[in-house]
Amino acid sequence: MSDPIPADPVLAVDGLSIAFQTRRGLLPAVRDLSFSVGRGEMLAIVGESGCGKSLTALALLGLVPTPGRVTGGAVRLEGRNLLALDEAALRHVRGARISMIFQEPMTALNPVLTVGEQIMEAILEHEPVSRKAARERTLALLERVRIPDPARRFAEYPHRMSGGMRQRVMIAMALAGAPAVLVADEPTTALDVTIQAQILSLIDELRREQGTAVVFITHDLGVVSRYVDRVLVMYAGRKVEERDTRDLFADPFHPYTQGLIAAQPRGLIAAQPRGLAARSQADARLPGVARERLTEIPGTVPALAAMPPGCAFAPRCPLADDLCARTVPPPRPAGSGLVACHHAGESHAI
Amino acid sequence: MPSDASPATVPVLSVCGLSVDYATARGVVHALDDVSFELASGETLGIVGESGCGKSTLARAVVRLVDPSAGTIRLGEEDITHASRRQLRAARRDIQMVLQDPAASLDPRWTVGELLAEPLAIHRIGSRAERRGRVADLLRKVGLPPEAAGRRPHEFSGGQRQRIGIARALALEPKIVVLDEPVSALDVSVQAQILNLLTDLQRTLGVSFLFIGHDLSVVEYISDRVAVMYLGRIVELGDRDSLWRRPAHPYTRALLDAAPRIDGPAVPTGPGLSGDTPSPYDLPTGCRFHTRCPIATELCRHEAPATRELSPGHLVACHFPDTGAEPSSSARFGSGI
Amino acid sequence: MALPDTASLPPTRTDFRDRTVGRLLRRPSALVGLILLAGILAMAGFADIAFPGDPLDMAGTPLLRPGDAAEFPLGTDMMGRDLASGIFHGARVSLLIGGVAALVSLVIGIGIGALSGYYGGRVDRALMRVTELFQTIPPFLFTLALVAILQPSIATITTAIGITSWSGLARLVRAEVLRLRNSELAQASIILGASDARIIFLHILPNTLAPVIVSASILVATAILTESSLSFLGLGDPNVVSWGGMVGAGRETIRTDPHVAAIPGVAIVIAVLALNLLGDGLNDVLNGKGERR
């Protein structure tokens, strides 16, 4: 495979497949997914609900919930295949070398322990240090994630904190073992936009300063465009495109990526050179604000049980032909990355 | 507040000095404080702000789901601020609402046909057969096939359900539809479908929208004018273009900067806001934004700024609004704060 | 031209009720409960055909054991009354009292619960105080006292059981109505201009049906037990035969001829068991323990 492999990948995922065990057999939810992340790099996995991005995130830590299970591939963290480890060995790696933050920190925090105690536990779990040392480290971590007045916050319970503060605590906990990889599953989706900006800059700063590789799961292309180095677009369980962020937004190859970007409501600034047609249409409206039609992606994502045999996007794709209906397009090198489409490049307008 | 409208151009909705207080176990929450705006026929007013800013309370107060504690709400020339349930019945034909989660607002036991006919039945409009025809018409309007009438809501996808919610709100041919975060739960490609649908409906029906949202690019896309709210107050109100190009209130500016967008700058342009939104139980004195404001002074801590009109139709509640005359984008992306 | 996500609809699913019944029948315990209940219903229905005479008549030699005489398959009691006839006719009385008493408490419980939950505030506080009053008095003693004062008859027994057993149901309905009252479901109706009655009867109550149906089956079972206990204590309707009364009548010969008390006792156990199995099954199916969709 000719992945755009970072020089020295901390995390390399190779041919990962995840399926749900159902009464009617295995339903594949993630298929043959490969990617890698280098030290200090931030890779985003984007896609709409049900594309398999969250499942992938969980698989990176060996946390795929039943009835799902990993049916193939490897997840190599610093050269070691995590999928081959038993639960005890995994527990050693989790939190120490790879850790995760979630959309809703409340579900991951223990409501009856103070946040300080929880972070201390996380430290003591992985390192033979004294409680006093752990406490000091905890205070340093709280300070590190910019929680004001760490000594007071140490003794506070999670439910007393705001959503943004809780997410900071989660990040502090995730950093307790100084992991090589941080998996962030929609960490700011539940937060307000000004708080989201704070959390994202914090993550960004940490990976730059500590060299933590970040796998960032999100549906928000705006966030991706500002903070992320490389983007992996998933559709119906497969990677359809992987590119450097700037290239992806400047010139998306895959028709699905093109559709996603075009469906994004865009503002005045981008839409400035507006055609006269759009203006005159709008003139009929009272206050006279022009509004371009957003591009829709027709149809819906196919259900897992009704996946077409060829390219999963073919039924919704303007470029699809017989070939697409029959065979799954393999990822091929394109520009700064990969695209999995038979026809990408033939047309750029969707 | 400007209310010099001549009879010919009476706004379809005018809200003046509206306040809503909630009594809770922890004390009184001033969810909405002295909010005023007008909605013209056929326009979309976007209301944007973060959680706790009162935008949902505002939506609910306007349709009289919650009772205002002060101020007035006028539908056209009719004051509905204190109208009884019975008096409101007639007014409800003019103002309808689409709730955020259609899965929760559509009765799972009813078919879509029954759900769409219900508003007509409540207001005794048409015979049974006429209502059936009207249902088919509504389904067509929102882009659903006629067979949908026989199905129940759970058989539809999220986007389809929101179409049903919109059809139900349009059944009475209202003049105003309040949309409370109608696309927040939807994926981006489906969101685009719903936003296009709303635009088309407005163009063909001439209905006015009060659009509540937290996603700035969505609000920017759909709105003609936008009101920015913070802790129960409107801090800035103006037409979309001037608000986005020349945000006068430091909060508006911070909000626009904080929301990354694919067509925006690659790096945050301002320092960003520090800290959290204060608790609504314990509101700051003076200007409510002063605890997070990068340009707050002693004055802001003591005295709440009055709303003033910067340019026709552009209102701001700030002691030190950015009145930079340059309408270029540099005003927005400069390090003016 | 882009088609919206509406071009295709999934195939229609079968009706809500069909699916509920189908899922219920796939549960072995619920199926057993249904079969037993059907059997008891059949006994009640065919009592007059299978045993035409008055079950209280002396029909044969007293204290025959089951199998002693082909004419009396379950034997006779110390008065020579046919036990099999008593079981069949008793099923009628037990089901009647159980069903009607449950109905009475459903009407009171749903009414009070719905008003309390929907209107809240002062109405709620007043109605809930009344409910608590009924909850604090032990229901059986309350029923006993009422029946003793009113003179035992099928009507008084049924009423007494009904008005002493609704409090739990009222609280359940209140909680459900309160939840739905504040949901977007009710708000959407208010915005459309619907009247309170419309919202309560067309949107809220039908959506509280699941837990109500479950508790109704338990209410019937409890009412049958209460009636039996009353009859056993001699406070049953003397003019009709009931299972509890038959157990009471067998008490005196329990050492020598235990079957006289045991046979109606088994009938009570089976009826109550059947209703409980059915209630459990309904609970699983309606309250979503089973597969959704």
Automatic annotation (TrEMBL), chain B:
Transmembrane segments: none
Membrane topology designation: Peripheral membrane protein
Domain ABC transporter: 15-256
Keywords: ATP-binding, Nucleotide-binding, Transport
GO molecular-function terms, A-Z: ATP binding
Record Pfam families: ABC_tran, oligo_HPY
Location in or out of the cell: Cell inner membrane
Matching PANTHER family: D,D-DIPEPTIDE TRANSPORT ATP-BINDING PROTEIN DDPF-RELATED (PTHR43776:SF7), TRANSPORT ATP-BINDING PROTEIN (PTHR43776)
Assigned protein family: Belongs to the ABC transporter superfamily.
Name of the protein described by the UniProt record: ATP-binding cassette domain-containing protein
From TrEMBL, chain C:
UniProtKB keywords: Cell membrane, Membrane, Peptide transport, Protein transport, Transmembrane, Transmembrane helix, Transport
InterPro entries for the chain: BP-dependent_transpt_permease, MetI-like, MetI-like_sf
Domain of life of the organism encoding this protein: Bacteria
Domain (ABC transmembrane type-1): residue spans on this chain: 91-279
Predominant place of localization: membrane
Pfam name, any one: BPD_transp_1
Protein topology in the membrane: Multi-pass membrane protein
Bilayer-spanning residue ranges: 29-51, 95-119, 140-165, 260-279
Protein location: Cell membrane
Family stated for the protein in its record: Belongs to the binding-protein-dependent transport system permease family.
Name the UniProt record assigns to this protein: ABC transporter permease
